[in-house]
Structures are given as C-alpha cells and as structure tokens.
Design goal:
The protein has helices spanning about 15-25, 35-45, 50-55, 70-80, 80-95, 110-115, 125-140, 145-165, 185-204; strands at about 5-10, 30, 100-105, 120-125, 175-180. By secondary structure, the protein is an alpha/beta fold. The protein has a 5-stranded parallel beta sheet with strand order 2-3-1-4-5, with helices on both faces. The protein is globular.
C-alpha cells in the first residue's frame, strides 16, 4: 500500500534533513526532487539543452557536486521552464506511488506533483536564518563565499521560485506549515513525524 508524504519549502529551510529523517523513521523511500533540477542545471552549465537534459536524465546524473552555488542558480533557472518541469513530472509521480511509502521534498510536491498526497508539509524559515545555514554549509565544503552574498542569493532564488508562472513555490492549502527558524533539527523532525503519524492514523 502506498502512502505519500509531500514536503515543500524554500532553500535551506531544513526540508531535506526533515524529509530524510521522516523517511528513515517510517521506512519510506526518499526523493530529493531538487537534485533532479540541480542535475539538469549542471548539464546546462556543461552546454546541454535544458529540456533535452531533463528528458534524458539518469540516476548517475544525480551524483557529483550538485550543491555548488553555480549549480543551485542554474537549477533555479531551469526549474522555471515549463518544459523541463513537465519532463520530470512522470519520474516523480512514479516514485511517489511506489508500494511501501515515499517521501518527496521539493517546491511543488504538494501543489502540483502529488496534490493527493496523504500528508503535506511546508517547511520554512526566515531568509536570514536560511542564508546562515547555507553559508556555513558552503564554507565547510570549502567554498569561498560571504554571508551577504549567500543572503542575496537566497532572496533572489526565493523571488524566482515564488514568482514563476509554472508551479510557483507556495504551501498547499492543506499543508501543515513548520517554521524551523527557532527550532533545533530534532524539534523540526519531531514536529514533522507527529504530522505524518496523525495523517496515517486518519487513514487507518
């Protein structure tokens, strides 16, 4: 029996960490859909056509350094292209429908990819908090970036993701919003698990 958990939110809100923990807790499969767009963005940076890259994406393309700032920007740009999003929809929906349960995190899972998901969460935090998290992550990975540059990048990406014509970033009407600005990782994970447990109980 399938059970789909859709987790959306802006960059560096903690949705990836929360999603992996929720999947591990319930024994569900996990898909970071942002990696699909980062992989397409990386191929575009190498000279590929965005739509063709999306249509021919394979599992091996999801490896490598897909967290670099340049790849993140390219991912956000290609994600605004309707044809790219359409090319990746079937892959995501097939993953969501797998037996045994699935957790998908991204920006349009609860609104577009899996509007019938049994549990929907929107994980968010202030731009300043998210920029601080991303800045520390990049510094630890050896990237030479300033906090101000990362904050500007976060705000630019938020605007692009929220204002795009196709599948803009927004909470689904029935999503539970979790603001992690003042939460520890454990607190955010516990809140998400509680939501999913409640939804599973309603379905039982």
């Amino acid at each position: 029996m399938s059970f789909t958990v859709a987790i959306d939110g802006p960059a560096a809100a903690g949705k990836g960490t929360v999603s992996r923990a929720v999947a591990a807790h319930f024994g569900f499969a996990h898909l970071d859909t942002g990696l699909l767009y980062r992989a397409v963005g990386a191929k575009v940076l190498e000279g590929a056509d965005a739509v063709e890259a999306a249509r021919t994406l394979v599992a091996d393309d999801l490896t490598g350094d897909l967290r670099a700032p340049g790849v993140a920007q390219a991912a956000s740009r290609v994600a605004a292209e309707p044809q790219v999003r359409a090319a990746l929809v079937d892959f995501q929906r097939a993953f969501a429908a797998r037996a045994g349960g699935a957790v998908l995190d991204g920006r349009d899972i609860g609104t577009v990819i899996c509007p019938e998901a049994q549990a929907k969460l929107f994980v968010t935090a202030s731009a300043e908090v998210r920029a601080g998290r991303r800045w520390r992550e990049l510094c630890e990975a050896g990237h030479d970036v300033t906090f101000d540059a990362v904050l500007a990048d976060v705000r630019e990406r938020d605007a692009r993701d929220s204002e795009r014509a196709t599948a803009p970033l927004r909470p689904a009407e029935d999503a539970v919003v979790i603001d992690t600005s003042e939460m520890s990782i454990d607190e955010a994970v516990a809140a998400a698990i509680a939501v999913v447990e409640e939804k599973r109980g309603e379905r039982a």
